[in-house]
Specification:
Shape: globular
CATH architecture: 3-Layer(aba) Sandwich
Structural class: alpha/beta
Radius of gyration: 19 Å
CATH class: Alpha Beta
CATH topology: Rossmann fold
Largest sheet: 7 strands, parallel
Distance between the termini: 38 Å
Strand content: 5-15%
Number of domains: 1
Strand order of the largest sheet: 3-2-1-4-5-6-10
Length: 336
């Protein structure tokens, strides 16, 4: 039996499909208020036959911070994929996010050690890697650097990684993947799929920075291949292409058949925007559309190398053009 945490999230939902397609027996951990229709929506992307696979998921109700429910879930598993995490840029949720992502991961790896899980795969983020200071390409040997520029989310994922590495020293057989910005169909109202919806509604500005992007299908296929391989206690950046935000938004807009953003937002305008969103959050408690951390990131150009995985296992990346086309096609069918 394979256990997947975060089964209603973007990566978790696609992972469940590909594991079931492979013929695996799969259970998925979900919180009591999680909406499994989000996962069904992802399965529909793969066609009507995929819905037959959706019905084979064994849903388990639990929480990363509820040790007893987590123990029940892990007890019957041989392999664990940990995709579950809280992602938020709302300052009011900072402490809770840090606890869920760090303590929740600690709970999970401790149980995996206790139950002698055969292999553990953790979905981390490029947010835990070092910063590019002189334009160099970030790879697996670019290490976290201290400082105040890290977002609460990146800190939480870094601490979660440390729990996994600690567990490997105690005998856990694990692999970590660090995806760049993940592109693919999912809940259009949150996470990276929300970018597609934002462009569709009419994005007016683009920022001068750039980053790496990767197909969600490549992320989950890479995870499965690494778990099935002899590779252990290694990390792998998953990055299909580096691209400027302007180029990415233009490609998304073309796929959606809408106008691309044509106005460049400089440092001054972005500074005004995040301060306005901070005030809105303070007054009304709403999730900010842009924060000081995300504003800083949007002005930087960082490039990543995703080549290491191709040297360790048989693995190829999907063209980002194909990824964007498939994603925008599904958006137009389901949202437009």
């Amino acid at each position: 039996m394979i256990l997947v945490t975060g089964g209603t999230g973007l990566v978790g939902a696609h992972l469940l499909y590909h594991l079931l397609l492979k013929g695996e027996n799969v259970s998925a951990l979900k919180r009591i208020n999680s909406d499994v229709s989000k996962t069904r929506f992802v399965f529909e992307f793969y066609g009507e036959e995929a819905l037959k696979l959706f019905d084979k998921i064994e849903w388990l109700t639990g929480d990363l911070l509820d040790y007893d429910s987590l123990e029940d879930a892990v007890s019957h598993a041989e392999v664990v994929y940990h995709t579950g995490a809280l992602v938020s840029f709302n300052p009011a949720l900072k402490d809770h996010m840090l606890r869920v992502n760090e303590e929740g991961t600690a709970n999970l790896v401790n149980l995996c050690l206790e139950k002698n899980i055969r292999k553990f795969c953790f979905v981390s983020s490029i947010a835990t890697l070092g910063n590019s200071k002189n334009g160099e390409i970030i790879d697996e040997f670019s290490y976290w650097q201290g400082g105040r520029e890290h977002s609460a989310y990146s800190i939480s994922k870094y601490r979660a990684e440390m729990e996994v590495w600690r567990a490997t020293k105690e005998g856990l057989n694990a692999v970590i993947v660090n995806p760049s910005v993940i592109v693919g169909p999912g809940d259009w109202s949150q996470g990276s799929p929300k970018i597609i919806h934002t462009v569709y509604k009419g994005l007016k500005f683009y920022t001068p920075g750039g980053t790496g992007f990767v197909d969600v299908r490549d992320v989950v296929k890479g995870m499965i291949a690494l778990v099935d391989s002899d590779v252990q206690n290694e990390r792998f950046i998953l990055n299909g292409a580096n691209m400027s935000y302007q180029s990415f938004f233009e490609k998304v807009a073309k796929g959606l058949e809408v106008k691309p953003p044509v106005r460049k937002a400089g440092k001054k305008l972005i500074g005004i925007a995040w301060r306005f969103e901070k005030l809105r959050n303070i007054l009304f408690g709403t999730e900010p559309l842009i924060t000081k951390d995300s504003a800083r990131t949007s002005l930087k150009t960082t490039r990543y190398s995703g080549d290491m995985i191709t040297r360790n296992i048989e693995f190829n990346y999907t063209s980002l053009d194909t990824t964007i086309q498939d994603t925008t096609d599904y958006f137009r069918r389901t949202k437009a």
